[in-house]
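User: Could you check the structure of this?
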Amino acid sequence: MRVAVVTVGDELLAGETVNTNAAWLGRQLTDRGVTVERTTVVPDRTADIARVVNEYHADYDAVIVTGGLGPTHDDVTIDGVAAAFGRQVVESEDAIAWLEEHGGYTRDDLTEGTGHVPEGSRVLPNHEGVAPGCVVEDCYVFPGVPGEMKRMFEEVADEFSGERRHVVTVDAAEPESALLDRLAEVQDRFPVKVGSYPGEYVTVRFESADESVAEDAAAWLRERVERPDEG
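Assistant: Sure, the predicted structure tokens are below.
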């Protein structure tokens, strides 16, 4: 399963808020065997949300959108997602009924716009807040508040699955440029995905659907590099 994640918010683009939602979703999806191929941040602008969701809907098995839900003037995610699918935005009787029964609200308590979703979508109740999420075809729309988003994802987590990938890492106390020949050779020898990430040490990452293959590739490299504990 291939998924794209779209996070919405001017504050994310301005660096005022750290995009923890994207990191958390990436880990949760990867742990379920899902391949996350895009993580995109877009502003609180209907046209941008619609364009990106429309594009990703055509390219991926599912799209997850977080942020910009609610009745305030800058909460335009529902409008953008509706536009991407050519649907009207309507008040969901299911959402209002859930808020009345479980949230302790009456219809008159709710701000105008609360409970609005794209027409024909499946409503996802918000157990930690007010604004509901929804599912439109293969697009999942969650709140941006981390606690609300995580709780709502748990409700639909079983709808995301794929082939579990196994990761093994090796730290090397050598410059990345000095490792190039060995990295090329290990990739020739083993059917693994190899990545290298410089830092205090160079961390070489091996990924495979077969855990033993990833372990064998890592063992091969460990025997041929200078390790941090050997320095």
